Amino acid sequence: MKIAAASDDGKTITGHVGRCEMFIVFDIDGKAIKNVEKRENSFTMHKKTGQHKQHEHNHEHNHEHNQGLGRGGSGRHIGIIEGLKDCAYLFCCSGGPGLIDDLNANGIQTFFTGEMDAEEAVKLFLEGRLQNDPDRQCREHRH
């Protein structure tokens, strides 16, 4: 099983999934971390490279830039779904409901946590002690 965590620094879990710099991917064997891989976030157009900042003041922009596989065929997030398709879970601090729906519909379960240390979050999860907090979901607008 693999667990991904949205991150900006390769160590901590970051806020908004679509704007993160990378994903830390933990390869799990039983109840232990076997390997750790860092994948640059080349999957979303909201990465902090300024793409999203261009649209922050005019939020009528079209999300067709990442159309994909979502529920009911809506699929705005094919890039991130393809980039994390080998992961069973995605740990994050927040993310838009559209992304969350698309990930869940494609077998990647999102897990919202306040635990900032990615490795510690994975260890707590494997022990059954990590709390999922769906209230952390971004509700400002539909992604």
List keywords for this structure.
143 residues, alpha/beta, globular
Write structural notes for this entry.
The chain is α/β, with parallel strands linked by helices and 143 residues long. Helix content is 17%, strand content 22%. Strands 3-2-1-4-5 form a 5-stranded mixed beta sheet, sandwiched between helices.
* Total number of strands: 5
Task: Give the biggest sheet.
Answer: 5 strands, mixed
Beta-strand proportion: 15-25%
User: Uncertain segments of ≥5 residues (pLDDT<50)?
Assistant: 49-74
Give the count of helical stretches: 3
Q: Cα-atom Rg, whole angstroms?
A: 14 Å
Summary of the model, kept short:
The chain has 143 residues and is of the alpha/beta class. It has three helices and five strands; from the N terminus they run E-E-E-H-E-H-E-H. It is globular and about 35 Å long.
Topology:
Elements: E1 2-7, E2 22-29, E3 32-40, H1 78-83, E4 89-92, H2 97-105, E5 109-112, H3 118-126
Parallel strand pairs: 1-4, 4-5
Antiparallel strand pairs: 1-2, 2-3
